């Protein structure tokens, strides 16, 4: 244990990483050398003592031993429950009776859902050997994150609104101890630890000792814009999108980041939160304060209801993006942020966070591989949602320019606001008049957006829906480059068929939709504009 008292020289981040590594080694030695007694053995010992105590009820030594064993058994049961709860990741079950069996049921279900007993390899052959599965998973994600088939040369980008000097000063404001402490204290202690092995619960429990080195390391990052590579190593946990998945394309890679890194990105999110509402157009609702999925869902139902009414030719296009988070062009994102007026120092901090990580893939809770990446945002990184909607804002800019130049004509021009599209994260719904010129313009927009941002249209899953009076539907769908679909439109996980209010027995929601449309009309966007 003497090495724990050695204080290394170097940067604040290096010193903290070194101390955590020393602590991990010490904890591993302690686990290996401590006496190992199972809960079942301890409970059996307690029962034996209680039987003996019944035969000799006045024996003070047995009574004291019973009291000690009761405390030890209670502590071991609590530890088992905490461990099971952490592995089950049940954040919705709070402060109730002990229910370890429930947690283990959840663990078994989760393990079954996310297990990979068989996998299709690159040749299309189904493999079941664990080593082959591990090698295929590593190969797949190396290829996914290291592709370079997109441009690194960008035109001058036109954006709708610029970050002001005052807003940049808010972004670059010095980090205070109170901010860091608030993030640590509000963190869920049952979240899985990152590659360094230390969970948010560890930082929370020992904050009195850790706060000084953590604050020094955090402030060092915000002053220098540099992040130690050990801080940003990431485990990719593969979560199945469907039952019995055998293709890695059907798994969602969730990034398990170190908690120290999450402290930094949570701080950056808090600084960005104050400017995002004014920076991001109203047609985007995801991750923005005071904007809700319910608002978008209601508006989508109202628009599809109007879409279904007789009169005129109308088109509704549901666009699907292929591997959206994983394929973002980081150079484009940084170029776009500069065009939006973000201070260069802030953009460099963002670049360091998203470009410096290394990855290992978790298969059966064991990490495999070690590789870097040159594209994509990590699902599980607190900063990723804000960065993704900034990328999607450029799609709005392209749509705005097409509407302004009349290459695309939106629907509902008389009573409702002019609506060209809705965006919720990577869910896109476009509503336009299906002139051939408009279909080709939308196809060009998606091609240009994909070429710059890296977000490619998944034409197999995208669909265009035409009103009943629309003629030459096949030709118009061909001009757009996607297949025709049949109503209802699936949007935000449910059918948008214009019957929401009737199904729910709440006709008054129709009036609410009108109120929402009126409120959205006043936000001053080209996308939302009253005639």
From TrEMBL:
Native organism: Iris pallida
Origin superkingdom: Eukaryota
Pfam family name, one: RVT_1
Residue ranges constituting the Reverse transcriptase domain according to the UniProt record: 220-484
Listed name of the protein: Reverse transcriptase domain-containing protein
């Amino acid at each position: 244990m003497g090495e724990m008292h050695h204080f290394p020289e170097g940067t604040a981040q290096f010193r903290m990483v070194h101390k955590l590594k020393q602590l991990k080694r010490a904890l591993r030695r302690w686990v290996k050398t401590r006496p190992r007694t199972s809960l079942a053995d301890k409970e059996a010992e307690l029962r034996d003592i209680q039987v003996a105590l019944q035969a000799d009820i006045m024996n003070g030594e047995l009574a004291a031993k019973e009291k000690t064993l009761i405390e030890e058994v209670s502590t071991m049961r609590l530890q088992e429950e905490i461990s099971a709860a952490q592995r089950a990741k049940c954040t919705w079950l709070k402060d109730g009776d002990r229910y370890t069996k429930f947690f283990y049921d959840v663990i078994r279900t989760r393990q079954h859902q996310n297990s990979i007993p068989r996998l299709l390899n690159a040749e299309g052959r189904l493999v079941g050997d664990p080593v082959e599965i591990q090698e295929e998973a590593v190969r797949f994600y190396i290829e996914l994150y290291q592709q370079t088939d997109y441009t690194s040369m960008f035109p001058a980008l036109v954006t709708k609104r610029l970050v002001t000097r005052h807003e940049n000063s808010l972004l670059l404001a010095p980090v205070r101890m109170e901010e860091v402490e608030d993030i640590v204290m509000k963190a869920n202690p049952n979240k899985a630890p990152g590659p360094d092995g230390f969970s948010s619960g560890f930082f929370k429990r020992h904050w009195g000792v850790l706060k000084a080195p953590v604050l020094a390391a955090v402030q060092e990052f915000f002053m220098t814009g540099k992040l130690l590579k050990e801080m940003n190593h990431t485990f990719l946990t593969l979560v199945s999108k469907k039952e019995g998945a055998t293709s890695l394309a059907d798994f969602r890679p969730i990034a398990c980041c170190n908690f120290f890194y999450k402290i930094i990105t949570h701080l950056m999110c808090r600084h960005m939160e104050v400017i995002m509402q004014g920076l991001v157009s109203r047609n985007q609702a995801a991750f923005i304060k005071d904007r809700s999925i319910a608002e978008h869902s209601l508006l989508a139902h109202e628009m599809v209801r109007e879409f279904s009414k007789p009169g005129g030719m109308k088109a509704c296009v549901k666009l699907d993006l292929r591997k959206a988070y994983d394929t973002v062009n980081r150079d484009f994102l940084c170029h776009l942020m500069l065009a939006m007026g973000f201070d260069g120092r802030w953009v460099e901090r963002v670049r360091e966070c998203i470009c410096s990580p290394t990855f290992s893939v978790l298969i059966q809770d064991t990490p495999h591989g070690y590789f870097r990446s040159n594209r994509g945002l990590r699902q599980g990184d607190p900063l990723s949602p804000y960065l993704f909607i900034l990328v999607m804002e450029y799609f709005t800019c392209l749509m705005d320019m097409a509407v302004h130049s009349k290459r695309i004509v939106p629907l509902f021009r008389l009573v409702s606001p002019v609506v060209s599209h809705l965006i919720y994260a990577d869910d896109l719904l476009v509503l336009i008049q299906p002139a051939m010129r408009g279909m080709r313009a939308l196809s060009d927009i998606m091609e240009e957006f994909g070429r710059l941002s890296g977000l490619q249209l998944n034409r197999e899953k995208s669909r265009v829906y035409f009103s009943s009076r629309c003629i030459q539907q096949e030709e118009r769908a061909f001009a757009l480059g996607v297949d025709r679909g049949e109503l209802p439109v699936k949007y935000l996980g449910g059918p948008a068929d214009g019957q929401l209010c009737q199904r729910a027995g709440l006709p008054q929601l129709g009036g609410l939709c009108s109120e929402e449309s009126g409120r959205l009309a006043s936000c001053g966007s080209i996308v939302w504009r009253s005639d």
